[in-house]
């Protein structure tokens, strides 16, 4: 595999996708608020989800760094990481990002963020996760297939 081909080919870095959906939700909220919870409940639930997402994401990132592989999905993977949160989910960083996103839109009490979550997750699944899976299977073969067979994709 050439160096240029040794990467998953994700369509855009995941944090950019989530940030784009969040900005779109803020803009839509400005024109039409569309609340879905009471303000007090929304703030506390949102804070909890953001903190949970950050814990999962930081744990996953630290596990990848410790394993010596690239965290950035635009760069080559050097190892299959099966420890830390990767024992429970093949994509804990994306689960963490999703929890942070849902926490922020919950704290802002805007249903726009929930409506945008569906297309966001479809783009993440098809444009990021599925591409990464094809790449990892091609690069690591049976090692990745065994890992994939024993660990769920998301939750």
Task: Report what the structure shows.
- The chain has 155 residues and is an all-alpha fold.
- The chain has one domain (14-150).
- It is 66% helix and 0% strand.
- It is built from 5 helices and no strands.
- Helix 2 runs antiparallel to helix 3 (92-107).
In brief:
The protein has 155 residues and is mostly helical. The chain has helices spanning 14-31, 39-67, 92-107, 111-140, 142-150. The longest helix has 30 residues, at 111-140.
Question: Notable features of this structure?
Answer:
mainly alpha
Total number of β-strand segments? Answer: 0
Distinct helical segment count? 5
CA radius of gyration = 17 Å
The overall pLDDT, averaged over residues, is 95
Strand content: under 5%
Q: Give me the strand/helix succession.
A: HHHHH
**Rough shape?**
elongated
Structural class: mainly alpha
Largest sheet: none
SSE topology sketch:
Elements: H1 14-31, H2 39-67, H3 92-107, H4 111-140, H5 142-150
Helix pairs in contact: 1-3, 1-4, 2-3, 3-4
């Amino acid at each position: 595999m050439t160096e240029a081909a040794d990467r998953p080919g994700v369509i855009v870095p995941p944090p950019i996708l989530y940030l784009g959906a969040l900005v779109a939700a803020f803009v839509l909220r400005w024109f039409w608020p569309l609340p879905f919870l009471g303000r007090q409940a929304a703030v506390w639930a949102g804070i909890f989800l953001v903190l949970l997402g950050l814990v999962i994401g930081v744990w996953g990132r630290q596990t990848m760094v410790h394993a010596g592989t690239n965290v950035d999905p635009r760069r080559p993977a050097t190892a299959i990481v099966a420890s830390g949160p990767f024992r429970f989910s093949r994509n804990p960083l994306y689960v963490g990002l999703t929890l942070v996103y849902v926490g922020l839109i919950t704290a802002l009490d805007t249903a726009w963020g929930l409506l945008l979550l569906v297309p966001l997750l479809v783009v993440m699944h098809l444009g990021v996760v599925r591409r990464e899976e094809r790449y990892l299977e091609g690069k690591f073969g049976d090692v990745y297939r065994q890992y994939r067979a024993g660990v769920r994709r998301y939750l």
